[in-house]
Amino acid sequence: MERIPQHSHCQICGKAVPYEKTVCSDECQEQYESIVKKRRFYMYVMYGALAVLIIMFILMYVP
Ligand SMILES: [Zn+2]
Questions:
Q1: Pick from 7, 18, 36, 41: CA 20 to 30 A from residue 25's CA?
Q2: Could you read off the pLDDT of 25-52 as tens digits, one per residue?
Q3: Separation of CA 43 and ligand 1 centre (Å)
Q4: Ligand 1 being an ion, which residues bring their Cβ within 5 A of it?
Q5: Range of 28's domain?
Q6: Does residue 28 fall inside a structural domain?
Q7: Which of 8, 12, 10 is nearest to 31 (CA)?
Q8: Please, where are the H alpha helices in 10-62?
């Protein structure tokens, strides 16, 4: 078995990177940030849709 000091992998291309880093290069950093932003946006959309559903449910069932 190979002995590698504690490390993680680039979230974009999968290269091994130092433990405290999430990406290997500025290029991957940019891509990573755009993915994170997109993911956050979809999360808000999901929460918004859920809130609308709950409000509609309440409006339909509460006189
Ligand atoms: Zn990378």
A1: 41
A2: 999 999 999 999 999 999 999 999 999 9
A3: 25
A4: 10, 12-13, 24, 28
A5: 7-61
A6: yes
A7: 12
A8: 26-61
What is the domain count for the chain? 1
Residue 41: per-residue pLDDT: 97
- Taking the centre of ligand 1 as the mean of its atom positions, its distance from the CA of residue 10, in whole angstroms, is 5
Which among 31, 28, 49 has a CA at the least distance from the CA of 39?
A: 31
Cα–ligand 1 centroid distance for 26 (angstroms): 8
Establish if 2 belongs to a structural domain.
no
AA identity, residue 31: Q
Which residues lie closer than 8 Å to 22 by C-beta, 6 or more apart?
8, 10, 11, 32
Q: Which two tokens stand for residue 3?
A: 């002995």
